[in-house]
Amino acid sequence: MEYITDRITIDEKLCNGKPTIRGKRITVHTILEFLGAGETKEEILKQYPSLVSEDIDACLKFASELMNRNYTIVKVA
Question: What is the per-residue pLDDT across 16-26, written as a single tens digit (0 to 9) for each?
Answer without folding.
Answer: 999 999 999 99
